[in-house]
Amino acid sequence: MRFLILGAGGIGSYFGARLINAGHDVIFVARGKQLEALQQKKLKLQHPEFCFFKRVVSYNIDEIKKIQAHNFDAVLIATKSTSTLSLANDLKEWFANKKQIPYIISLQNGVDNEEILSTHLDKTHIIAGLTRKIGAHIVSPAVISATGTAETILGAIELTKSNESFLNRLKEVFNDAKIPTQISNNIKLELWKKLIINNGVNAICALLKEETKTITQHDKLSKIVYGLMKETAVAALNQNIKISNEDVDEMFELIKKFDSIKPSMLVDVENNRELELDEICTVVIKNCEALGLDAPYTRTISSILEYLYYKK
Fold first, then answer.
1. Does the 188-310 domain belong in CATH 3.40.50.300?
2. pLDDT beyond 70 at 303
3. Domain residue ranges of the chain, discontinuous segments joined by +
């Protein structure tokens, strides 16, 4: 298949490297020092079970618009959720008056990306996706550190025979590339279950500048993590999504037993980048408020982090 990957950070680079290694055509869209490095030297990805060190093709977003959209089968979005609206506008411009367009697969954090994309693009071409049991980040420009299996779940926002066929094909491609993948008929539930993990560890690890293992193995801090996760499950009820206590326990045990990683928000703090607070924390607070409830764990952690980080 022919892939365009928007975002050559940890996740985007991992997926791209796996797909290239399996014989697929991949072009990256990057920016800044990462783009400059990818254009000048090889992409190096280090993983306990997989090493990649090859030249890759990379452009900026404006250069991509000069390429015909039908040259790609799929566009994987692996950027920060803070850039979704901007990317939706870029893709809308790129796809304008085109009869044949690629499928759009979001692998981003958060639960609102697909809704944002669908207000600008054909909903039947939008695929929601999530990865878990994966930690990946940029060590230095064009150098990526990754760990975990990158278990991936995909699902159409609006199922059709056409996108169902594409999903089955994409599942085979990912699995063959050693990205274990399954398809869900209730992808919104899966996105909220992923948010349970993200809200549970992202902000608190960024605030304390500690990796997940330190937080989840600590007697007192682990209780805060669990409280953050429970609040996310409550927030999901406002979207008519029911997440059981057993589901919360499963997500807690998953992150507790997984390799110690730096959540994306901690990496963003270390690199002075914009934080996905609205996309991970505020969405929990607002959905709880819509139910007439507060989210004290989430509000406290995110408010303190926001104050300390942005007062600089």
1. no
2. yes
3. 2-184, 188-310
Identical fold for domains 2-184 and 188-310, yes or no, is: no
Q: Alpha helices of the chain — where are they, by DSSP H? A: 10-21, 32-40, 61-64, 84-95, 113-118, 161-176, 187-208, 212-216, 221-236, 245-257, 264-270, 277, 283-290, 296-310
pLDDT at 98: 83
Residue 68 binned pLDDT confidence (cut-offs 50, 70, 90): very high
- Domain 2-184: which CATH class? alpha beta
Q: In the 3-class helix/strand/coil scheme, how is 162-223 assigned residue by residue?
A: HHHHHHHHHHHHHHHCCCCEEECCCHHHHHHHHHHHHHHHHHHHHHHCCCHHHHHCCCCHHH
The pLDDT assigned to 18 comes to 99
Whether the pTM exceeds 0.90: the reply is yes
